[in-house]
Design a protein that fits this description.
Elements lengths: L7 E2 L2 H10 L2 E8 L2 E8 L1 E5 L2 E9 L13 E12 L12 E16 L2 H15 L3 H7 L2 H8 L2 E16 L6 H12 L4 H12 L1
Length: 201
C-alpha cells in the first residue's frame, strides 16, 4: 500500500484496535495470476506475539482451496469521507478523500479439527452477539455438525501489517478545523467517524 510518511501508522495496538472495530474485511488470494476476494467477519487475536486473523468460508466458495497456497492479503477499511475544497483557505485546491485502511499480509492455514472449528464459531458468536450463545448452546448437536460440514474455517498468521491514516494531516490547523466541523454535521455516519478520528489526532 502506498503510504506517505505523514499518513503512516506504526502503533500495533492502535492498528489491532482498528481491525477489531472494523472487522468485516476483504480477504484476497490469487491463483494463476487471477485474484479472488471474499468479504468476511474476522476474529483478531494474539498468539505467541503474532497477530492471528480467524474466519470461515462457505464450503461452496472455492476460494478456501487457495488459502494455503500463497501469501494472503486481508484489507480492513471502513470509515471514509469526501473532502470538499470548500474547506480549504485557497481556491487553488481540488477534492480528496479521507480514510483509514489496514493491509494485513500472511500465510493461511485451514482449520479442520471439529473441536477447533467449533471454537472458531463460538469465538465469532462471542465477538458479534454474546446473547446468542445461550440459543447456540441449546441447538441439537446434529444440527451443529451439519453446519460445520458446510463451512471451512481458517486462520492467517500476519507477517506484515501496513496501516494508513489519511486524515488531512497535510492541511493547516484552520483547514483541519473546518473539515472536522463539516464532517461532524454530515448525515453520513462514515463522515462523522472520520471527524472523530481527526479530532483524536
Amino acid at each position: 500500500m502506498y503510504i506517505p510518511k505523514t499518513n503512516l501508522v506504526t502503533d500495533t495496538n492502535e492498528i489491532v484496535a482498528f481491525m477489531r472495530q472494523f472487522s468485516f474485511a476483504t480477504v484476497i488470494t490469487a491463483k494463476d495470476n487471477f485474484p479472488t476476494a471474499t468479504h468476511l467477519p474476522f476474529i483478531i487475536s494474539n498468539r505467541d506475539d503474532k497477530i492471528v486473523l480467524t474466519s470461515h468460508f462457505a464450503k461452496a466458495n472455492t476460494q478456501w482451496e487457495d488459502i494455503e497456497r500463497e501469501n494472503i492479503l486481508t484489507i480492513f477499511s471502513e470509515p471514509h469521507a469526501y473532502i470538499s475544497p470548500a474547506n480549504y483557505d485557497s481556491r487553488l485546491n481540488v477534492p480528496t478523500w479521507n480514510y483509514v485502511s489496514v493491509h494485513a499480509y500472511g500465510q493461511g492455514k485451514i482449520i479442520s479439527e471439529t473441536e477447533q472449528v467449533f471454537k472458531v464459531l463460538e469465538a465469532t458468536i462471542n465477538t458479534y452477539e454474546q446473547a446468542y450463545k445461550l440459543q447456540w448452546d441449546e441447538l441439537p448437536e446434529e444440527y451443529k455438525l451439519k453446519l460445520l460440514n458446510g463451512i471451512v474455517a481458517f486462520e492467517i498468521i500476519v507477517s506484515d501489517l501496513q496501516a494508513k491514516k489519511k486524515l488531512s494531516q497535510n492541511r493547516s490547523e484552520n483547514e483541519q478545523v473546518k473539515i472536522i466541523n463539516s464532517l461532524a454535521m454530515s448525515p453520513d455516519a462514515n463522515a462523522r467517524e472520520i471527524a472523530r478520528l481527526m479530532k483524536e489526532l
